């Protein structure tokens, strides 16, 4: 869907903000009735908070904005597949739909390692769309980690 690509583009812009402050580039945007009600990027290092993931920060902002913990008709766009913590928060905030870019083989809980978003034992299931601007999303991450490895090598050479 064209719209999905548009909003994923905005999530990528968020991810780039994270990258610019040396955070792992992950960004999220929440949309309700065509309006952006939450937008955030990973701030784990900056804030030294293990829960400062893009999705959680965006959900928090969205709840404040609509004045409710229920985000029933909202769609969450995120550049990387949600981890168990964020997938849990997505289910608990009753988000209708999740669109993610890159799969996460080391932590993805929206279909890769497990699928917390669509487990029928929970009282809420989420529609999941994958692969929107996937290459761009994963390229952002692989470039980031490549640069880190390069910097580490250079530091070693200096010793
Ligand atoms: Zn997370």
From TrEMBL:
UniProt keyword annotations, A-Z: Hydrolase, Metal-binding, tRNA processing, Zinc
* Organism superkingdom: Bacteria
Query: Where is Zn(2+) bound in this sequence?
Result: 53, 83, 86
Q: Name one GO molecular function term.
A: tRNA-specific adenosine-34 deaminase activity
- Active site at 55 (proton donor)
Per the UniProt entry, what are the Gene Ontology biological process annotations, in alphabetical order? tRNA wobble adenosine to inosine editing
**Which cofactor names does the annotation list?**
Zn(2+)
**Annotated family:** Belongs to the cytidine and deoxycytidylate deaminase family. ADAT2 subfamily.
Quaternary state and interactors: Homodimer.
Q: Which HAMAP family match?
A: tRNA_aden_deaminase
What is the protein name for this chain?
tRNA-specific adenosine deaminase
To which species is this protein native? Fredinandcohnia quinoae
